[in-house]
């Protein structure tokens, strides 16, 4: 379920990443090519981007499908950034959270998205939720598995973990608590992208000139796209991409 993408590189209009390519994120909202679960990503969307010298990103999120939002079309045409994260949300069960459930989630300099689903939610993660401070639970952005995953990642970062370790250890903890979950996470601070391939597709594109794209699926047919093996942590900057295998938790 869901599709997401992150970009680092020279300043571009948001639409150059999210709209213009032939199989861009907007088209993936109704016609994904490699989505393994779900078919239509119409239950919300969002984009976060970094502007100027402000380290905290701006966001635009809505509860409906991206293809019908004229304001997003205008923003994507004129807003430029050197780093962004966009996501479209798979059609799912009814809920009252609206755009609060749409990625990217944000805090400080960070943007976060989850492509997947936690098995046997919410009961399977009750023990992990219990490790969070009460304030973290009371301030969840939405009543969803993705919002709780974001809280778990944030808690590790606040405790001193770097963003790659926080993402990797959260995935391993959740996979142990809820086997069979799909846990493709995507996180950026505007200078680094961290992502996991765990149960769904993940690809990356690194090009000359310091341009790096990490996405659920390629937005075009450029042969330079690389598929990330399942059970892998990706950490990327504008010039380097590092892949680290993640070990399946013991049964």
UniProtKB/TrEMBL annotation:
Residues 2-251 form the Glutamine amidotransferase type-2 domain. Its EC number is 3.5.1.118. It comes from the Bacteria. InterPro entries: EgtC, EgtC-like, EgtC_Actinobacteria, Gamma-glu_amide_hydrolase, GATase_2_dom, Ntn_hydrolases_N. This is Gamma-glutamyl-hercynylcysteine sulfoxide hydrolase. It is an enzyme of class 3 (hydrolase). The gene is egtC. Signal peptide: none annotated. Catalyzes the hydrolysis of the gamma-glutamyl amide bond of hercynyl-gamma-L-glutamyl-L-cysteine sulfoxide to produce hercynylcysteine sulfoxide, a step in the biosynthesis pathway of ergothioneine. CDD domains: YafJ (cd01908). The keyword Chaperone does not apply. The keyword Transmembrane does not apply.
């Amino acid at each position: 379920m869901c599709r997401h993408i992150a970009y680092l590189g020279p300043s571009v209009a948001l639409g150059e990443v999210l709209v213009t390519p032939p199989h861009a994120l907007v088209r993936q909202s109704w016609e994904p090519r490699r989505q393994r679960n779900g078919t239509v990503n119409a239950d919300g969307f969002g984009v976060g981007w970094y502007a100027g010298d402000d380290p905290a990103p701006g966001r635009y999120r809505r509860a409906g499908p991206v293809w019908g939002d004229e304001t997003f079309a205008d923003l994507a045409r004129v807003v430029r950034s050197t780093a962004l994260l966009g996501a479209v949300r798979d059609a799912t069960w009814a809920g009252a959270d609206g755009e609060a459930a749409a990625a990217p989630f944000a805090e400080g300099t960070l943007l976060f998205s989850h492509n997947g689903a936690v098995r046997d939610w919410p009961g399977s993660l009750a023990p992990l939720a219990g490790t969070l401070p009460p304030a973290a639970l009371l301030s969840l952005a939405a009543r969803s598995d993705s919002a709780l995953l974001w809280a778990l990642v944030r808690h590790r970062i606040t405790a001193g973990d770097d963003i790659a370790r926080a993402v990797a250890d959260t995935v391993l903890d959740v996979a142990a608590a809820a086997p069979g979950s799909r846990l493709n996470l995507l996180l950026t601070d505007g200078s680094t992208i961290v992502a996991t391939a765990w149960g769904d597709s993940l690809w990356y594109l690194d090009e000359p000139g310091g341009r790096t794209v990490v996405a659920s699926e390629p937005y075009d047919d450029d042969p330079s796209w690389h598929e990330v093996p399942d059970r892998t942590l990706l950490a990327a900057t504008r010039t380097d991409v590092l892949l680290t295998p993640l070990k399946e938790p013991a049964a």
